[in-house]
């Protein structure tokens, strides 16, 4: 039996024809085996043992965003190297068999073991321990001539990856990804490469470090001068963005939820924001939808496997409207744009798995 419901909600049905080919979203990067411990009373101390309240094991790294995008109905392709060990077997099975992420551009590498990250969630934050070796094949070698796609996520490095430049030349909208720079250099050459991107979505610390600004608002405006769509995420304070193409500027607060496991929340936010961009939603709705998906994810254990599907989003909307004390509240007014969307979501739409180590997604 197919683990993913055959009748899936397509958020882009109104903006593409039934005969359209290629991916909605193309991703490349490293897939980690994530082992996540949540609800720790404190960080481990030398010579002691502590027990966690929860634990999850799932594909991590670029798989976080790939799974989040696929669960939101995007036709998602991933180019990544996979080890030929047990972790590689598990991650390939989950991504391709359970989540229907297209791995035709990925490759199993004999003798290369999968990178592993242990994530410790303490007091609404996390610390990580990682081990791995560089992949023996680059993203450009895996992708070759980029396939047709509406959008792709590429690393904002000092030098652009050839596949990303080729994709942009073919009309693919590039969304910029960036990791923390441990050297503290934050090369200005990376900012110059924003000319190739449609959107850039750093967190506030990355944005300020990149631009040399001392507050996230100034950093946002500095980035908005360099890229059509600039987004800065603010953690519990939400997210803000400027869309220079439409002239929109928005700040949207986060939903008030108890964060249980923040692993992968930023990737979930990014995938949801891309959905809104491809669907042509107003900037405020794009940010609200991304905040909602991230808020739903952090309330569950499991990193990538905590990402919500359209069934979860429809359930949230129905529960929120069923509570009398919330009827007419500012939160429901802000999310009223969902009413027309979830009306088309089938009852059997994808919902996330609930097991600590899931074999199949719940239908």
Task: Please list the strands of the largest sheet in the order they lie side by side.
Answer: 4-1-9-10-11-12-13-14
What is the name of the CATH class? Answer: Alpha Beta
Q: Quick check: average pLDDT?
A: 88
Measured by DSSP, the beta-strand proportion falls in: 15-25%
Uncertain segments of ≥5 residues (pLDDT<50)? Answer: 1-6, 354-363
- Elements, N to C (H/E): EEEHEEHEEEHEHEHEHHEEEHHHHH
Specify the structural class: alpha/beta
Q: Rg, please?
A: 20 Å
Explained architecture:
The protein is an alpha/beta fold. The chain has one domain: UDP-N-acetylmuramoyl-L-alanine:D-glutamate ligase, CATH 3.40.1190. It contains twelve helices and 14 strands. It has an eight-stranded mixed β-sheet, with helices on both faces. Helix 4 links the parallel strand 9 and strand 10. Helix 6 crosses helix 7. The radius of gyration is 20 Å and the shape is globular. It starts with 22 loop residues before the first strand and ends in a 21-residue tail after the last helix. The N terminus and C terminus are likely disordered.
Short description:
The chain is an alpha/beta fold. It is built from 12 helices and 14 strands. The N terminus and C terminus are likely disordered.
């Amino acid at each position: 039996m197919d683990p993913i419901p055959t009748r899936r909600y397509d958020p882009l049905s109104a903006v593409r024809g039934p005969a359209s080919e290629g991916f909605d979203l193309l991703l490349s990067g490293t897939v980690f085996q994530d082992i996540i411990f949540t609800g720790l009373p404190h960080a481990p101390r030398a010579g002691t043992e502590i027990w966690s309240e929860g634990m999850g094991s799932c594909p991590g790294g670029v798989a976080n965003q790939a799974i989040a995008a696929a669960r939101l109905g995007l036709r998602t392709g991933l180019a990544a190297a996979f080890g030929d060990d047990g972790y590689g077997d598990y991650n390939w099975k989950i991504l391709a068999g359970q989540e229907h992420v297209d791995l035709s551009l990925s490759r199993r590498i004999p003798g290369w073991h999968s990178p592993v990250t242990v994530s410790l969630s303490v007091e609404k934050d996390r610390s990580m321990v990682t081990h791995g070796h560089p992949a023996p094949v680059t993203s450009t070698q895996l992708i070759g001539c980029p396939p047709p796609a509406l959008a792709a996520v590429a690393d904002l490095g000092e030098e652009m990856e050839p596949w990303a430049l080729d994709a942009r030349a073919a009309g693919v909208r590039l969304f910029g990804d960036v990791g923390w720079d441990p050297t503290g250099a934050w090369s200005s050459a990376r900012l110059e490469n924003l000319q190739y991107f449609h959107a850039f979505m750093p967190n506030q610390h990355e944005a300020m470090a990149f631009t040399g600004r001392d507050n996230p608002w100034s950093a946002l405006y500095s980035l908005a001068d360099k890229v059509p769509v600039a987004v800065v995420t603010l953690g519990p304070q939400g997210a803000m963005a400027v869309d220079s193409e439409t002239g929109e500027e928005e700040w949207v607060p986060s939903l008030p939820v108890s964060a249980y496991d923040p692993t992968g929340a930023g990737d979930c936010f990014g995938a949801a924001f891309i959905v809104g961009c491809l669907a042509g939603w107003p900037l405020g709705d794009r940010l609200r939808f991304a905040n909602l998906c991230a808020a739903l994810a952090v309330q569950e254990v499991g990193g990538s496997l905590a990402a919500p599907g359209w069934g979860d989003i429809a359930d949230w909307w129905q529960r929120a409207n069923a509570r009398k004390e919330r009827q007419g509240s500012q939160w429901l007014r802000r999310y009223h744009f969902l009413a027309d969307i979830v009306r088309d979501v089938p009852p059997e739409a994808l919902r996330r798995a609930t097991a600590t180590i899931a074999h199949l997604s719940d239908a």
